Amino acid sequence: MRILVLCYEYPPLGGGGGRVAKSIAEQMTLRGHEVRVQTAALGWHSRRESIGGVEIFRTASGRRAPDTCAVYEMGLFVGTSFLPTLGHLRKWKPDVIHAHFAVPTGVLAWAAHILTKAPYVLTAHLGDVPGGVPEQTDKLFRLIDPLARQIWKRAAAVTAVSSFVQDLAERAYARKPERILNGIDLFGAPPSLPKPTGPRRLIFVGRLNAQKRPVFLIEALARLKAVDWKLTLIGDGPLMESVRRRIRELCLDDRVLLTGWLDAADVQKHLREADIFCLPSSSEGLPVAAIEALRHGLAIVGSAIPGLADVVENGINGALTPVDDNAAYTAQIERLLAEPETLSAMQQASARKAHDFDLAAIAGAYERVLTGAAR
Predict the structure, then answer these.
(1) For the chain, does the N or the C end have fewer beta carbons within 10 angstroms?
(2) What is the C-alpha to C-alpha distance for residues 24 and 105, in angstroms, rounded to an integer?
């Protein structure tokens, strides 16, 4: 089967959604399928490359940053990728299109389907559905509602990366996607290694933006100056300077390591050495970083939001606190630092829960959906 993957960001560009697209594309090649990816390039230089057996076509789109994409840059991706996508369909003749993100990528898949009748499978992430990230997307969804409904209606099949996204999509478009969780490669899981001695190690991985709430985390941990801990904060984004300033103001320079973006190998190293994964986000679909935390057997302290329901069982492999309750978040971190037996039990539960996200099984589910759509 020939699969054309459309995704407005693909590693090394983008965040968790792009990494999901990459992992599934590479799994499809391992299963004997031919896979091409049409995506955006950084800046105005188109390029073609091969990664993991996947042929990747990056079209100039004016994108300025590897980790963030403005709405107008998404629109440019749709515009500059339209003719290349038609070229793939007419010359390479894929059996099915796999479109990650209903907005903006679904627009491209829908237009290509209207012109060529090529079937497409739509995979929805958090920002693809009304109510997922309301402060960022509600106005946009009201504006494009008629088009969005057509994108969902015309898809041969639809999937969602979490129970939360699945529920929001059904509510908005009266079509229930099949839930297929984001996956991780358990076959390549690292061996269990002893944690470094010294203070307990906390870790945060993600964009430094309002949704991820890194400043909230810094302020919560500042309450624990009498407790021995270290925090590694991996990521970059619009709040980087605010985070740096708050660390200085709260005199936490010797406690917090602010790394910026790191490559995958370095992120894995820091996760392997950590004890607790901090996820104080105000909204999530199904965070890939949290799944990686399960893979490394970390207890997770997060917000009580629907998007974490698939990854954190409150009191079992982590703790969930009300979104705006800084004191409650601090209290849960303090409890795990003070109760090594509770922390160890949660870490073991996370290692077991990682098997819910076995990439091989998840790739099999996508293969079944894509094959059905192609037929």
Answers:
(1) C
(2) 17
364, with CB counted inside 10 A (0-12, 13-18, 19+), is middle
> Over the Cα atoms of the chain, what is R_g?
21
Which conformational region is residue 44 in: left (phi greater than 0), alpha (psi within -120 to 50 degrees), or beta? alpha
Report pLDDT digits (tens) over 66-98. Answer: 878 888 999 999 999 999 999 999 999 999 999
From CA 300, how far away is CA 343, in angstroms rounded?
10
In degrees, rounded to 5, the angle at the alpha carbon of residue 260 between the alpha carbons of residues 256 and 261 is 135
**pLDDT over 80 (residue 181):** yes
pTM score: 0.84
Amino acid letter, residue 107? V
Please name which of 228, 255, 221 lies closest in space to residue 337, comparing C-alpha atoms: 228
What is the predicted pLDDT for the residue at 127?
A: 82
CA–CA separation, 122 vs 133, rounded Å? 19
Q: How far is CA 171 from the centre of its chain?
A: 22
Tokens of 74: 């998404």
- CA distance linking residue 121 with residue 95, whole number of Å: 11
Q: What superfamily in CATH does domain 2-183+358-374 come from?
A: Glycogen Phosphorylase B; (3.40.50.2000)
Measured distance CA(66)–CA(18) in Å, rounded: 11
Name the token pair of 54.
């996947």
Q: How far apart are CA 182 and CA 320, in angstroms?
A: 21
Whether residue 81 contacts residue 101, with contact meaning beta carbons closer than 8 Å, is answered with no
Q: Which fold has domain 200-356?
A: Rossmann fold (3.40.50)
Please give the structure tokens belonging to residue 91.
């010359």
Closest CA to 9 of 100, 129, 111: 100
Check: CB of residue 239 under 8 Å from CB of residue 211.
no
Tokens, residue 6: 């459309």
Beta carbons within 10 angstroms of residue 182's beta carbon = 25
Cβ-based neighbour number of residue 152 at 10 Å: 22
Burial of 186 (0-12, 13-18, 19+ CB in 10 A): middle
Q: How far is CA 97 from CA 6, 105, 172, 336, in A?
A: 7, 11, 23, 46
